[in-house]
Amino acid sequence: MHTKLICSQTGEEYAIDRLQNLSSAGKPLLARYDLPALKSRFTPGSVRKRPLRSMWRFWDVMPVDAPSEAVTLGEGQTPLLPCERRGPFAAFERLLIKDESFNPTGSFKARGMSAAVTRAVALGAKAVALPSAGNAAGAATYYAAKAGIECFLFMPEDTPPANIIESVVGGAHVFLVNGLISDCGKIVRHGCERFGWFDLSTLKEPFRVEGKKTMGYELAFDLADLAGESELRLPDVIFYPTGGGTGLIGMWKAFDEMERLGWIDSRRPRMVAVQAEGCAPVVKAFHEGADHAEMFPNARTVASGLRVPAAVGDFLMLRALRESKGTAISVTDEELMEGVGELSRFQGVYACPEGGAVWKAAEKLLAAGWLKPEEQIVLFNTGTGLKYNHLSRIGDLPQVDHTDAGCLDRVAELID
Ligand SMILES: Cc1ncc(COP(=O)(O)O)c(C=O)c1O
User: Which of 135, 204, 307 gets mutated to test ligand 1 (max ligand atoms within 8 A of its CB)?
Assistant: First the structure.
């Protein structure tokens, strides 16, 4: 493995051959690869020839010596769907959805957990623990099950029922906490000290971000395929629903690596972080020109993945947004649920609320003139709407009596 670990703030180097969490400065560790050494064998052409149907086709820049070492359930290689120019989507000429709901356990969290569990197990971890707003819990459960290790989860008590149920069914030790994800994080920290679990919290170990960065690599291949060209390319703008920010930070890292590998030039998409109005620490910090985000008070939103009042990688997200000439924007819970309905009805994508949020943010930024209709824009739908069924009110449905010969007359009345 051509990797070393570097503190994202001080640049100090850390050993790669031992389980690591934050640096001594309390900041995330990031993996650095010897990209010049990889350049001759790791090329877009070599990747395209690989038969692997998962994100592990990028294994050269991931924490393994061979793809066979991966703890995998087939994550990644999700579709990039061109949007139909219908209803409120008609104004966009080149809008695309990267639909991460196709991942194992129904969300992009699978990518990060596949990479993190792979490395944790390789370094001898027998039990992992994490705080989760929902989807990370499900993903950690199933990768731990695949690896044959224990998983301890601490979730806010109002986490969506689907996430709790899938975790229990998958054999995780689940604890519900009367607080926010940050309160759960404190319990995990102390539990790791006391019981020797390995802490898999967002950005508190180095490899979830390595899994998430594959979204950036994949996008470059997807867009080349869409254009029918072999040259890799990136879109003009990327919209990402931001909680802990691993995906945003990961994709930004992927673009940097791809440039160093000689795969792309120095042009970058404008990155847009989307949060919920009831929990928007990154949006606030971005518009105040701050380098770090303050803890967001009374964090509330139905988009549980966005309910992260404080993130350890805040400075990395803010740096990526500014370097990319992007922005940060929030939407209300009402708007993001309206977005879920519109993605469902007009695009055939049953999105999670976080996916609904990015769509509404794009609509707002087009109306504000920040986006141009002809720009190529990628929205990340980070998970399936099926896990959030409890948020939708469908009302009473008409009943049809199959023994009534006139039942279709009643249907005719109703559809008239
Ligand atoms: C569906 C969904 N979208 C977005 C997020 C936020 O992801 P990140 O922590 O990478 O910012 C989460 C996190 O829980 C999530 O579950």
Answer: 135
Ligand 1 touching residue 107 (CB < 6 A): yes
pLDDT at 2 over 80: no
Cα of 175 vs centre of ligand 1, distance in Å, is 20
Residue with tokens 């994550």: 75
156 touches ligand 1 (CB under 6 Å): no
Q: How much is the pLDDT for 241? A: 98
Residue 330 Cβ < 6 Å to ligand 1: no
Q: What is the pLDDT of residue 416?
A: 83
The residue length of the chain stands at 416
Query: What domains are defined for the chain?
Result: 80-106+209-391 (3.40.50.1100)
Structure tokens at 62: 């991931």
With a 6 Å cutoff on the Cβ, whether 106 touches ligand 1 is: no
CA distance 413 to 409: 6
What are the distances in angstroms from CA 307 to CA 3, 142, 158, 202?
33, 23, 11, 13
C-alpha closest to that of 106 among 80, 84, 73, 132: 73
Q: Is the pLDDT of residue 3 over 90?
A: no
Taking the centre of ligand 1 as the mean of its atom positions, its distance from the CA of residue 164, in whole angstroms, is 16
CA of 314 to the centre of ligand 1 (A): 14
Phi, psi angles (nearest 5°) of residue 196: 75, 20
What separation in angstroms does the CA of 168 have from each of 97, 141, 390? 31, 8, 18
The per-residue pLDDT of the chain, averaged, comes to 96
